[in-house]
Amino acid sequence: MRYKLPVVVAASLLALSACGSSGDAKSTAGAEFRVAYLPTANYLTTVKDSGYLEEELEKAGGTVKWVGPLDPVTAYDTVTAGEADASSTGTGYFVNLAGTSDAWMAFALEKYSGASQGIVATQQSGVTSLKELYGKKVGIDNPGGTGDYLLNLAFEEAGLDVSQVQKVTLDTSTFATAFASGQVDAIASYDQNLAAALATPGAKTLITGADMNSYNWSIHIVSREWAQAHPEELKAAYDGLVREAARAKADPSVITGTYREFGATDELTEQIATFDVPTIEPMNDEVVSDLEKLGQQYVDFGFLDSVPDIKSAVVDES
């Protein structure tokens, strides 16, 4: 699962200020790259098994230390406490983070079509279209989080009024139960939560991220202090993720196998296998432009007051 954090968490974190490329600072030899990895199948987690990160860091004179698996909040707290150097999140949370802190920099985008995100209605709801969600309960992860973003974007693009929907905030562990039991009429979610809903008999897919003008992807971030002190090692870490993406493209079981390790059932894994395999992209001008568009969507939806300076919060390893 590619975890995204709620907007409200961002206020408790330190914030990102100016950057550029990883070549802006002189590297300190022998750096240890401490990764606070998540219990999900993003590449900063799956690369733990391939050894590519260790191989690339070794070329630059560095080493890798794995910290985790940690839930997202604990992972970020671990980095801000100085006990780890890097972790992963979603682009929506990163855009919010870039506007509220200068402790982080993004160094790699993990991009996919959006088919692993969407809105799915229960059979018992009888809902077959977005408009039929008026007056219905829709489960989301957090206000301003991925599910809320997808719901707002879907309704905006359909010319519908999202205020007519009853949003219900659900804990990650309760999505499947709430959906299957009819506690909610639909969910707006991603990855394992979406897969669980899709695998439920009679469930109706209303829309996916691939059907919308969505800029919601996964992103890998590092503390600004570490990035500026160890530019060569950070480039090596990026290269390791590029190799890991190529491994997954050649053998998608890299992803599904990791989901199994973290407890996904065979049924869920079969559904997840239908999602596309992500790529790793550098934080170049095109990506910055996309994240600025995402920032504008967040402003339009009332999640942010203004679009943050994304350019100052990234490291372009291209």
UniProtKB/TrEMBL annotation:
<dbReference type="InterPro" id="IPR015168">
    <property type="entry name" value="SsuA/THI5"/>
</dbReference>
<keyword id="KW-0732">Signal</keyword>
<comment type="similarity">
    <text>Belongs to the bacterial solute-binding protein SsuA/TauA family.</text>
</comment>
<feature type="domain" description="SsuA/THI5-like">
    <location>
        <begin position="59"/>
        <end position="252"/>
    </location>
</feature>
<protein>
    <submittedName>
        <fullName>Sulfonate transport system substrate-binding protein</fullName>
    </submittedName>
</protein>
<feature type="signal peptide">
    <location>
        <begin position="1"/>
        <end position="20"/>
    </location>
</feature>
<dbReference type="Pfam" id="PF09084">
    <property type="entry name" value="NMT1"/>
</dbReference>
